[in-house]
Amino acid sequence: MKKEHLSSKEEIRRDPLSHRWVIVAPDRAQRPQETGQDQGADGSYPDCPFCEGHEQATPSEIWARRAAGSRPDGPGWTVRVVPNRYPALTSSGQVHRSQSGLFKKIQGAGAHEVVIESPHHHESLADADLLQIQYVLEAYRDRIRSLYQDAGLRYVQVFKNHKLPAGASLQHPHSQLIATPMLPQNIELKLKAALRHFERTHTCLMCEILGQERASQQRIIREHRGFISFAPFASRFPFEVTIAPLRHTWDFIEMPDEKLEILAFLLKDVLLRLKLAAADPPYNYFLSTAPNLRAMRSKPKQEDSLKAALHWHLEILPRQTAVAGFEWGSGFYINSRTPEEAARILRETQGLS
């Protein structure tokens, strides 16, 4: 192990009891916690850094969908991606690993970006037009592709916190990406389960799940042009929804624009149903996709197994109930609504036509 090198404020520390990695990021304590923006006389929100016209309040954009002739870091954009001003992780250009007895940590590896989903302060994805949502999905795809050029980054977690109770510090619609030099524990568990199933059956676990869900129809919400939304059999929260492609696709970054257009339709459809059926609940969503093969250093046969076993999907978790002591202590979740009932209610709620 290399000697400790204080190359960045952020550290990733491993818990020796659970092998869970924890990001220690002191700068996160400085991020603003919005309790309600004051609206100006002209209807604008002068203190919001994400509103159009306030581009100088954020770091310089690294990706954008813009009107022809508009300039970077100025008005005229539809979706912008910028580095997070209060990052959980940043890169120093070199990964530093250190260990003192049982205590391991990593510094200098990672990235944290914000996807500003709309120029408008209150335009949620449920209300946005389909092209706007497609651009958000394109931002996810393109930024994962770019970050995976760094062989030191193993995974990019895309996630969204909708509303303050779900962890959003600002109300303006946005989502985030965090790149890490190791697989997050939840992703590693899914990967191992998928590979074990493939080794036993030579089939994709998610493909089999989708086949069984389609056969029963109890938890299906909607199918649309090769994509499906459903309430998972072991949903952790009321109205939890998973969206996945019906055709086996192991990596989200393989999605062409025409597929993202279809995914945008189904994502808006689900979010609109949730808004109407569950009173626009706070929610988190996150993308489960493939790790960075360049960082995995897998052999060709191992890569073939990964591509055959993994199947990307998007999970949406409404936060109508709190995670409390039993859940934290045991890892169990208590769901007060059956997935079958939740799927029925969402099916019967008007979505997109």
Please give the CATH class of the largest domain.
Answer: Alpha Beta
Cα separation of the termini: 58 Å
Q: On the 0-100 scale, what is the average pLDDT?
A: 92
The poorly predicted ranges are: 1-7
Order of helices and strands: EEEEEEEHEEHHEEEHEHHEHH
- Based on the structure given, which CATH architecture of the largest domain is correct? 2-Layer Sandwich
Radius of gyration: 21 Å
Structural class: alpha+beta
Give the helix tally.
Answer: 8
Largest sheet report: 10 strands, antiparallel
Q: What's the domain count?
A: 2
Strand order of the largest sheet: 3-4-7-9-8-13-14-12-11-10
CATH superfamily of the largest domain: HIT-like
Helical content band: 25-40%
Number of strands: 14
Morphology call? globular
What percent of residues are in strands? 15-25%
Looking at CATH, which topology of the largest domain would you report? HIT family, subunit A
Q: What can you tell me about this protein's structure?
A:
With 353 residues, the chain is of the alpha+beta class. 28% of the residues lie in helices and 22% in strands. It has 8 helices and 14 strands. The radius of gyration is 21 Å and the shape is globular.
Summarize the structure.
This protein is 28% helix and 22% strand. With 353 residues, the protein is an alpha+beta fold.
